[in-house]
Amino acid sequence: MKISGKGGYIKSNRKNFLILLAPYFFPLYTLLVILAYIIISYFYNIDRYFSIVAFALGFTWSFHILLNALAISKSQDDFQHAGTFFSIVIVILFNTFILGLLVAFISGTCTLHDYFTALSNDIPAAYLLIVTGIRNAGKLITGHVKNIKAP
Fold it and tell me: Does the structure show a pLDDT above 60 at 147?
């Protein structure tokens, strides 16, 4: 294991693509905000502050997506293990799925049951949305990544 200011790594004999890609589809800071909200709301009525929670969720999710775009643009080794294209597709699919869960949480009107029911009933429409989203995200990411200049 090596950790430095420029990065770090862990050496292992085996590689599992889900473990390698987990940092790219597991929005840690977003989940910490949700966990904090759930714990605090258990003890206090903080419904009037939900707009602040929604802002924090959006901010942390945006941070997560920006870090993903930066990692993809730098050709991380994690993406090369299972194939760059496959890895990017998996990351986008998982992030799309988690974004749906996040929207269900924020909306307050859509339960997790509703989300999974709609997802299972509308798989063809979901695939079409995902493919369109991937195409648009790819264009957006490549356009923004080209404009990023190193300091």
Answer: no
